Structure formats: structure tokens, C-alpha cells
């Protein structure tokens, strides 16, 4: 059932991410978020009142559509609304909230029927529009629409009037006006095609996309979706029994949730790169040890009756993977894309996340049958290790950096805005 649920969410994620990206660029983050919650409300009501399979599946699809659409948009909102020193904490807490929510639903599924669960699922969807109503519009989106006065008001409402926040506001407006001044007014169709091609082949779009593609691979190869979905099959291959499937899944949920909460604390103390690569490479190492142990046990080279050894190592693996590898896509999607590419970039990566999710869910049964658990761990650990290695050389450190400074990095190769000789010219541009 978990596999089918995640497959539906993966399929619904494709239109979900695309519609989310279009709406947030057209109507702003606040209105888009409110609109994208409505399919979820309708979907869970359909599940509750469903009397046949088509209605039930449609309702589940709408719920998945809303969940995936608001997932990426929520990361964008957190990135644009929060101060640099707290942005990482809030983005990691978002991941922790997802883990805690999944664990709570798995627990209550033990005690409630599916119609009651559908009603419980309505609670956050009903509360969310009330919270969204209190938001101002995103200052970053207002800048793109040249509403500078409203941008300043929204920014001050969110961040106050400290010297650091004033400097961030000033630099953001300055950078967007500088980009606007370089754009030529062209109306012919051929010019628009050329501009579009040029826009999406620049390094400030391609490099964040590459980073996000690799981060998503790390995310999926860490087993975030696959391990809970196939916990029964994996544990049966390791221990030889499957009577405790609920407790296996619940144990994985608990480890993921506890690790996600702990990572929200660590990200405030440690640098992003340090947290990701220290836990990521350690997790790969532990997984390879599990793989080697299971392989030797299957060949009767070592005793196979000490199942507590691979299970204990897997617990260590889950902790390490969920400290750094699992939260990273939700964190980076709210940070790395420049403002002008944020909508399209989110759509591209959302599509890739859906493909990776469905690919992982569909390929895992084949791997478990053909190469068993140790082969499955070797494939996932190998791909995760290679992706982490590439990320090590291309991923910048974003801790305590403003979104504008991160954008500058992808444009100019450094976090400073402009060279000193251009400062005065840009200051005049802002004042005009």
C-alpha cells in the first residue's frame, strides 16, 4: 500500500511542480500557496466519501498534487521570507515536519479506518489558508514586478529595520534593477526565442540545476522513500521473518524524524557542506559495511544468525543519512536558484524529483529479487557516493549568505555584488 501511495504521489508530482512554478511566478507566492491547497481539500473529501476505486484514486491524486506543489513552493517561501542566519534552520525544520507528519499518520493508521484518516488529513489543509492570509507577499516577487515600495514594506514587516536587513534589501533591489537595465526591449518572436535560449543556457541556471539534480539523487539514494516503502521486503531478506512489518516501518519513521529534528539544530551550528559531506560519506561507508556483511553471510563465509549486526548498522546508517542527505534538496531548492530562474528551476527539479521517486519505487523490487538486499545496498550506496563526490567540488557554502549573495556566486563566481568601481553607478540606479 505504501508503494502504491508513493507512486500516485510521484505521478501527481509532475503536474504539481509545474503548476506550482507557473502560479508562483504569475500571481506571487502568497496567492499561489493558497490556490494550491484547494486540490488537497477536495482530494481528501473525495477519499472520505469515495464509494468506488476511480473516485478514491482521483482523490488521492489530488492530495498528492497539492502536497508536491506546496512542497517546493514552501521551500521557496521559507528561503525568501526568512533571514539568512535562520533560513537553514527553518528549511531543515520543514523536512522534520514532513517526517513527523508521516510518522503520525502511520501510527494513527494502526487505530483508525481510512475514512477517519482522510478527515484527520484535512486538519492542516483547513488551518493553512488562515495562516497564509496573514502573510505579506514575497519581497523578492514584488521586486520582479517592479513594485519597489510594496517590496520595502513587506521586507520590513518580515525582517525589521536592522542594518543587515536594510543592506540585504538595498542589494536585492540594486541587483534586479541592474539586470533590468541590461535587458533590451525586443518584441519579435525570433528575438524572444533567442533570449529564452540564452537565458536558460547561462551558468546561473545550469549550475544550480546540476547541483539540484545531484542533490536529488543523493536524497533518493539515501532511501528516504524506498526504505520505508520496502521495509518489510528488506528486513525479511536480512532476518528471514516478516511478522513485524509495522514495527520495522515505525522504527524507520522514528529514526528519520528524530534525525531530522537533530539536523535542524546541527545546521545552525555547522556549515551546510560540513554537515552534508561528513554525514553523507559516513553513511555510504556504513552502508557498504552492511552490504559486505550480508554478502559474506549469504556465502556462508561468516555466521548468518547474528542479524542484530546488520540491523544495528542500518540504524546508524539511517541516522547519518537523515542528518544530511535527506534534508538537502528541500534546503537547496529554497536557496540556489537566482530570482529570475526560480520558477522554471523549481519546475525542472520538481519533474526530476518525481522521475527519481517513481524510478526508485519501480526498480527496488527488481533489485531485491535479482541481487538481494546486499546488491540493492551496493547500488544505492555507490550512486549516492559518486553524487556526493561531484557535489563536493561544485556546491557552494550557503550558510548565513543572503539569497542575493548566493545569486552573485552563480553569476560572478563570488558572493560580493559588484566590483568596487561599479558601486556608485548602481547606487545612482537604485535612487532613480
Structural account:
The protein is mostly helical and 432 residues long. The protein has helices spanning 2-27, 29-49, 53-81, 84-108, 114-133, 139-144, 148-159, 163-182, 189-199, 203-221, 226-229, 231-239, 245-269, 272-298, 308-324, 328-332, 342-370, 372-394, 403-412, 420-431. Helix 2 packs antiparallel against helix 3, helix 10 packs parallel to helix 17 (342-370) and helix 10 packs across helix 19 (403-412). The radius of gyration is 23 Å and the shape is globular. The model is unreliable at 419-432 (pLDDT under 50).
Descriptors:
single chain; 432 residues; mainly alpha; 20 helices
Helix and strand arrangement:
Elements: H1 2-27, H2 29-49, H3 53-81, H4 84-108, H5 114-133, H6 139-144, H7 148-159, H8 163-182, H9 189-199, H10 203-221, H11 226-229, H12 231-239, H13 245-269, H14 272-298, H15 308-324, H16 328-332, H17 342-370, H18 372-394, H19 403-412, H20 420-431
Helix pairs in contact: 1-2, 1-3, 1-17, 2-3, 2-5, 3-4, 4-13, 7-8, 8-20, 10-17, 10-18, 10-19, 13-15, 14-15, 14-18, 17-18
Briefly say what this structure is:
This protein is mainly α and 432 residues long. It has helices at residues 2-27, 29-49, 53-81, 84-108, 114-133, 139-144, 148-159, 163-182, 189-199, 203-221, 226-229, 231-239, 245-269, 272-298, 308-324, 328-332, 342-370, 372-394, 403-412, 420-431.
